[in-house]
């Protein structure tokens, strides 16, 4: 009995892989780029405490964290000190996403542009949460022996 080899090609199948790309760059949007995401700015305008809680939750921190800023510092003006929770949040966003800056910069942004600073953080968190998905296909060749007909011919 003679065996011959036949090449069989297996059809490609998609292989899904999720890759998160971390970039060491500046903020994706500027402090006053509210038109980059009108939904974020509208929520901040109409219900700022809800917006803050959603932003912090999207960042995977405690939902009520922004409500701990004393005396509503961010809403009525900073006075002599920066709102500590907002300051920690901005510094944490910068640190996680490798955005250059300093605590002094964060303090200035929060003292003079409190709501815009929160909108900028929300846009950055939203942008960085979107993973990139690549789908690839690969063809594999396999050598298989040719099978002889084991039934007798009639």
From TrEMBL:
InterPro entries tied to this protein: PLAC_motif_containing
Source domain of life: Eukaryota
A Pfam family annotated for this UniProt entry: PLAC8
Family under the similarity heading: Belongs to the cornifelin family.
NCBIfam families, alphabetized: A_thal_Cys_rich
Protein name: Placenta-specific gene 8 protein isoform X1
